[in-house]
TrEMBL record:
Boundaries of every EngA-type G domain copy: 2-166, 175-350
InterPro entries noted in UniProt: G_ENGA, GTP-bd, GTPase_Der, KH_dom-like, KH_dom-like_a/b, P-loop_NTPase, Small_GTP-bd
Annotated GTP 2 binding sites: 181-188, 228-232, 293-296
Keywords recorded for this protein, A-Z: GTP-binding, Nucleotide-binding, Repeat, Ribosome biogenesis
Entry protein name: GTPase Der
Source organism per UniProt: Paenibacillus algicola
Residues given in the record as GTP 1 binding sites: 8-15, 55-59, 118-121
Annotated transmembrane regions: none
Organism superkingdom: Bacteria
Annotated GO biological process: ribosome biogenesis
Subunit comment: Associates with the 50S ribosomal subunit.
One Pfam family recorded for the sequence: KH_dom-like
Family note: Belongs to the TRAFAC class TrmE-Era-EngA-EngB-Septin-like GTPase superfamily. EngA (Der) GTPase family.
Functional description taken from the UniProt entry: GTPase that plays an essential role in the late steps of ribosome biogenesis.
Amino acid sequence: RPVVAIVGRPNVGKSTIFNRLIGDRLAIVEDKPGVTRDRIYGNAEWNGKQFSVIDTGGIEIDGEDMILKSIRIQAELAIEEADVIVFMCDAKAGLTQSDEEVAQILFRSGKPVLLAINKVDNMKRAEDIYEFYSLGFGDPIGISGSHGTGIGDLLDEVVDALPELTEEEYDEDVIKVALIGRPNVGKSSLVNAILGEERVIVSDIAGTTRDAIDTPFEKDGQRYVLIDTAGMRKRGKVYETTEKYSVMRAMRAIERADVVLVLINGEEGIIEQDKHIAGYAYEAGKASLFVVNKWDVVEKDDKTMQHFQNKIRDHFLFMTYAPVVFLSALTKQRLQKLLPVVKHVAEQHSLRIQTHLLNDVVSDAVAINPPPTDKGKRLRINYATQVAVKPPTMVVFVNDPELMHFSYERYLENKIRAAFNFEGTPIRIFTRRKS
Ligand code: GDP
């Protein structure tokens, strides 16, 4: 999916436009609840073309003289990440020094830049945008974030400028693995450790888009691809300078993955940011496992592993299904345990349960613990069937979906898990009226 970035100095209205682009006036391709908290990345569609949008305004740095610095970082991120850049200015404020600064940076990038002038709230103001011609990005497009005018024209131009990306496509049996975790947890070290392992065959077919972002390899007859490894190797750049940015980068990798390795620093323990990223893997319906790295430097006795595992369970209540692997990327201690677990959870993620087996489990569950009544009405379950994999998704047909309570759905999920395991993968249950 090609990427569009919105760049401009603070208060030109980037977030309003961003929300319009990914908002419900357009077809939302996906809407993931967890991301709304501080959403700077979303998916949009226009004229049948799908793309992602980054609001670089989400990474503004606070503080008096930080404005220029923020703008510069944003512009660099946009250049690094985006296929098309929407450069926003403000018709009410007119052309400013900072706009010219941004223009300078964008100009050198060679990326397609569309110049959008926001706050053109009525046609009389149209002449206000002429001065922006001097920025050298061709015709300015007048828009109004608050009224919504001009957005369609802007989108037409965005879509025209999008490159034809050949998304990396991998065969069905290739397991796509994303490594996520905060800076210095050991992602690049783990990538190198895996690829340097004995009997790992690293293929030299690099990814096809931009700067060869994925690394395919084979081990014990199973093919894998490590997603976005280039981003990890390219050290010390704008990447990871801000927390939100590394979260966004992780989200993009998660979207493309089958299995997400959530790296945790064994030396330092679990922090809030770990939860945020893991939550996204859960919401995106990906298989996951925890990798506790730097296990070599942890002082251990025979209970340390169990204690650490309990801590993970306490912190990630929504991901109790995810196995935990302890290892050291540095010494390669226990490294050989990793890929078999990755393969196992990938299999669970695409497991398909036959309808009759599923229904045996559901009827047993109902027999042991019948659905509660609600205002004298009782939920009746007709049957259940699995409608999708990755993640396994079940539909339960009932007399009246309103009567299905969250706790009963949880109960069914637990019974289904107890029967079929589904280790390492979320499962989804939808309730539908039997027609
Ligand atoms: P990234 O930012 O997540 O890619 O982390 P790096 O792979 O760059 O690792 C950050 C630092 O932690 C480096 O100094 C590594 O040598 C060190 N490191 C990585 N894995 C381990 C490990 O298993 N044990 C120890 N002791 N250090 C590690």
